[in-house]
Write a structure and sequence with these properties.
This protein has helices spanning 40-55, 63-72, 80-101, 105-109, 128-140, 168-171, 185-203, 219-229, 247-253, 269-277, 293-305, 321-333, 348-353, 379-382, and strands at 3-11, 17-24, 29-33, 117-125, 145-150, 180-182, 208-212, 236-238, 260-262, 283-284, 310-311, 340-341, 354-355, 358-361, 364-367, 376-377, 394-396, 402-403. By secondary structure, the protein is of the alpha/beta class. The chain has two domains: 3-104, Enolase-like, N-terminal domain (Enolase-like, domain 1, 2-Layer Sandwich); 109-372, Enolase-like C-terminal domain (TIM Barrel).
């Protein structure tokens, strides 16, 4: 099964996505997700100019060798552009292998460890009352775990709250520049515990609650927040502090027993190695689209399992249904799967472009037994939605200092 052609599509059905389609000489094709929010065209160039010429004619069954070839053979290892491109290729090769075998990818990984996958939804709001109202709606839909984010009083904008805009493209007012948001650590730290106090008071202890700090605190500030949230028994506190210096999490671990999760921007096992070995985190949130595809994620899950760290893959709207399907196959297999972030299946444009194998029911995702990843990509529909330059916001303190986002 030789690689005959590699096609790369960048389209915007609700969000920008980079889709890889590998065609083989026996007529099969495989699909991969190579989306990197705000840097999509850099990944496209990497795929078209540097990967495609190297893979034409190679045996598509040799997934491991191709992964090592693209990772070790380029000299410049790691980094989000390189690894996202490799991820897209890797997913497409697993999709191809499954189709050739007539089996879903989870069977190739070793079979299922569970029959369904627990997910958590997002309840956001401009006020605590609105956030709790949205929490109640998700509970009514069957969710057993929900992440809470709320606008911070006194700040013009807050992470996770789009102030009536449907996405970040609208938030940037159709200008190809990142929106800027104000940040005040003191206002945030004084407010968030009250959000969770009221959530527990209204809905009790049965619903599992989560919160995303988005790396905006120092280790000591994060420890203060984690300590303040301990009475409300979070499933986990996400991205409490940046992880470039992994010692940040060892310090944070000493200050709170609130469970910790990190990893959505990780590109390899090396980003997580010390965090896992020192048991500084409880959940690893690496994404197949950004951490090396199914091949790399399988290794990361196995390594994490040795230290009782569970997986909780990143599941934002800027990962395509192909990436979400890859997570579903990994989650079905991984014995140490914890929970999957889930923001729905997208709008009409998304569902017209991507046909996927997933079904949501009562707080859980179910995966069907379609061969490969089980996703199809309708090129004719995708071409109706051209790429739109879009960026995530940047944050600044009141004095203008650029802050973590």
């Amino acid at each position: 099964m030789k690689i005959k052609d590699i096609q790369v599509y960048v389209n915007c059905p609700d969000r920008n996505f980079v889709t890889v389609r590998i065609e083989t000489d026996n007529g099969l094709y495989g699909l991969g997700d190579a989306t990197l929010n705000g840097r999509e065209l850099a990944v496209v160039a990497y795929l078209v100019e540097h990967i495609k010429p190297c893979l034409i004619g190679k045996d598509a069954h040799q997934i491991e060798d191709i992964w090592q070839y693209l990772y070790k053979g380029a000299y410049w290892r790691r980094g989000p552009i390189t690894i996202t491109a490799i991820s897209g290729i890797d997913m497409a090769l697993w999709d191809l292998k499954g189709k050739a075998a007539g089996l879903p990818v989870y069977q190739l990984l070793g079979g299922k460890s569970r029959t369904k996958m627990k997910v958590y939804g997002h309840a956001n709001g401009n006020t605590i009352a609105e956030t709790l109202d949205n929490l109640g709606k998700l509970i009514g839909q069957g969710y057993e775990a929900v992440r809470l984010q709320c606008a911070i009083p006194g700040l013009s904008s807050t992470y996770g709250i789009l102030k009536g805009e449907k996405d970040y493209f609208e938030l940037q007012r159709n200008r190809p520049l990142p929106p800027e948001q104000a940040w005040d650590t003191n206002k945030y730290l004084n407010f968030i515990p009250e959000l969770f106090r009221q959530a527990r008071s209204k809905y009790g202890e049965e619903i599992e609650l989560l919160h995303d700090v988005h790396s905006r605190l120092s280790p000591i500030e994060a420890g203060r927040l984690g300590k303040a949230l301990e009475p409300y028994h979070l499933l986990f506190l996400e991205d409490a502090v940046t992880a470039e210096n992994q010692a940040n999490y060892r310090l944070l671990r000493q200050t709170t027993v609130t469970p910790l999760a990190v990893g959505e921007t990780f590109n390899s096992i090396w980003d997580a190695k010390e965090l896992i070995e020192t048991q500084s985190i409880d959940y690893l949130r690496a994404a197949a689209t950004h951490a090396g595809g199914i091949t790399a994620m399988r290794r990361m899950a196995d390594f994490a399992a040795l230290y009782k760290v569970r997986t909780a893959p990143h599941g934002p709207p800027d990962i395509s249904p192909i990436g979400h399907a890859a997570h579903a196959h990994l989650n079905s297999w991984a014995p140490n799967f914890g929970i999957q972030e889930f923001v729905g299946f997208g709008g009409a444009q998304m569902t017209a472009v991507f046909r996927h194998p997933l079904r949501f029911e009562e707080g859980y995702l179910h995966l069907n037994d379609s061969p490969g990843l089980g996703v199809d990509f309708v090129v004719e529909e995708a071409e109706k939605y051209p790429y739109k330059r879009s960026y995530l916001p940047v944050s600044r303190l009141g004095d203008g200092t650029l802050w973590d986002w």
